Amino acid sequence: MPSPTTEEELSGIIAGAEGPFRILGGGTRPIGRPVQGTPLSVAGLSGITLYEPGALTMVVRAGTPLDQIEAALWAENQRLPFEPMDHRPLLGTSGTPTIGGVIAGNISGPRRVQAGAARDYMLGVRFVDGAGRILKNGGRVMKNVTGYDLVKLMTGSWGTLGVMTEVSLKVLPRPGAAATLSLTGLDDATAVRAMAAALGSPFDVSGVAHDPAAGETLIRVEGFATSVAYRAGRLSELLAPFGAANVSDDVEGVRARWREIRDVQTMAGQPGDVWRLSVKPSDAPGIVARAGAEQVLYDWGGGLVWLRLAEGTDLRARLGAFGGHATLIRASAETRAAIAPFHPDPAPVAALSEGLRKRFDPKEVLNPRLML
Question: Rounded to an integer, what is the distance from CA 369 to the centroid of its chain?
């Protein structure tokens, strides 16, 4: 398996390609159509090349393990704001997640409702396209660019347009305190209304989730201790019509609970396929009722819904027309070959995507058909 250690070496490998490649970082996210091709690892392109805590910026090679990045940030009381999910528990994979895989999938966790997605913190990118060309875009500060915004384009492209070699990121301070408010016994529709009330408040909520199996609706606040205590108290008053809220301000306990939500750990090791729905929150309960899922978890105030269904279930066919996107995250290779894992794009968007693939991967050697 080719595992280049320099950008130039990677460029030469791709330029001389005689067949397709299956791009790998840590190998922890086998999502999308199964790719038939030679494994090409970027794990050798590793290391933090620049970290300026005072400027809230970090430049890091794409194959760098995520835990190495988080350890460096932790030492400076900083963090990746978008709280990337670790797919290993849900998918049953091993290995080590890399920053390149996180950015390639635009992997964002519960804090997205407050902080935004991984894409929003990308400052610059370097990558090798399907012709072997070394391309770069952006830098170490937020700025507008002309032509293709390759920074945004590469984020969420799943290695189909280029193999990332380096990314520049904006980071943020890590809060010292956190609290979770828990409401119990709410049905899905009522829980969505409660979460909407919390998100619509001025109290800077950083997480809103509903776990029907546990009978819990959870709201998270983070920041300075005095601010967290004040906001938790005001949210308790605001949410009183939905029931009495239990408040937990044990920081480690709060972090552990939201890691469970972030990584959908309640579905780990459980039988069946797992789908990820992106929908309008107010539509979510009705769509979930039609889905007939064996297990459900709401995140992002209901804008993100995880569903566990029987193996081989085509959720899109079961739901029919609905406003949103359904992505098949966990299933056998056979199911992922038979059912498109990524939601089909409307014809104009599909045509644009195909044009971009031809522009950046003319030989069709980079994760071909993974997103189709």
Answer: 20
- Which candidate, 94, 89, 29, places its Cα nearest to that of 269? 89
Ranges under pLDDT 70 in the chain: 139-148
The contacts of residue 359 (CB under 8 Å, 6+ apart) are none
Give yes or no for a contact between 367 and 35, defined as CB atoms under 8 angstroms apart.
yes
CA distance 128 to 46: 16
Class of domain 177-261: alpha beta
Who contacts 209 (Cβ-Cβ below 8 Å, separation ≥6)? 110, 195, 217, 218, 261, 297, 298, 299
- Give me the pLDDT at residue 2, please: 86
Task: Tell me which CATH code domain 7-173 carries.
Answer: 3.30.465.10
Within 10 angstroms of residue 199's Cβ, the number of other Cβ atoms is 18
The CATH fold of domain 265-338: Alpha-Beta Plaits (3.30.70)
* Tens digit of each residue's pLDDT (9 = 90 or more) over 260-286: 999 999 999 999 999 999 999 999 999
